[in-house]
Write a structure and sequence with these properties.
Elements lengths: L4 E5 L5 H10 L3 E5 L2 H4 L4 E4 L4 H10 L3 H9 L4 E4 L1 H6 E4 L12 E6 L10 E5 L9 E5 L4 E5 L4 E6 L2 E7 L2 E4 L10 H13 L6
Length: 201
């Protein structure tokens, strides 16, 4: 049975909502807090939250280097909001001590759409997601300033890049896990299934 096991990095952020969305998209979803838990999953979601806090906790919990190694080795990863920042190879305006995991050749700007009280929702056409536009929830959301040749832009909002894919790595500025629409998670689960070898099924 081709049911992938997908972890959600559970150091800070909206972990529960991603676990629910992944289960609705026919994956086995587990929280990941330790390197040994990371080693047991087929893929990983990096949730929204506070990117600096998540990066510092990842270092503290001994997860940063294992995360980087597995992403380099081809682990499928999906990052939302803060997760998108963590997957960027470069941040325009990093805070002191902030690190990234990397994985997408892109430059991102933190809090680009405004502060907490400027949060909003918008319909977003996402390449690879069939049907009506995705309702994107933007909360202190970053945007992608630019991407390299290996990265594919999947969506834009008001002229700014808000969804990107590079190989097995997917990232969105917005939070689809907060809307009850699980199509972006289903897209990621399909990516994970496609990545698994017949021997691992």
């Amino acid at each position: 049975m081709n049911t992938p096991v997908i972890g959600v990095l559970a150091l800070q952020g909206d972990v529960r909502e991603h676990l629910i969305a992944l289960a609705a998209a026919d994956a086995v979803a587990r929280p990941v807090r330790r390197p040994e838990e990371l080693a047991e999953v087929d893929a990983l979601v990096l949730p929204g939250g506070e990117s600096t806090t998540i990066s510092k906790l990842a270092v503290l919990f001994g997860l940063m280097e294992p995360l980087r190694a597995r992403v380099r080795a081809g682990l499928p990863v999906y990052g939302t909001c803060a997760g998108l920042i963590l997957l960027a190879d470069k941040i325009l305006d990093p805070r002191s001590g902030q690190e990234t995991i990397g994985g997408i050749d892109m430059i991102v700007r933190r809090n680009a759409f405004g502060r907490q009280n400027e949060s909003f929702e918008a319909a977003v056409d996402v390449k690879g997601v069939e049907g009506a536009p995705v309702e994107g929830v933007f909360i202190r959301a970053p945007w992608v300033e630019s991407v390299g040749a290996a990265a594919e832009v999947l969506a834009e909002h008001e002229g700014h890049i808000v969804a990107v894919r590079q190989g097995n790595v997917l990232a969105t500025s917005f939070h689809p896990e907060l809307t009850g629409d699980h199509r972006v998670h289903a897209l990621f689960v399909d990516m994970v299934r496609a990545n698994r070898t017949p021997e691992s099924l």
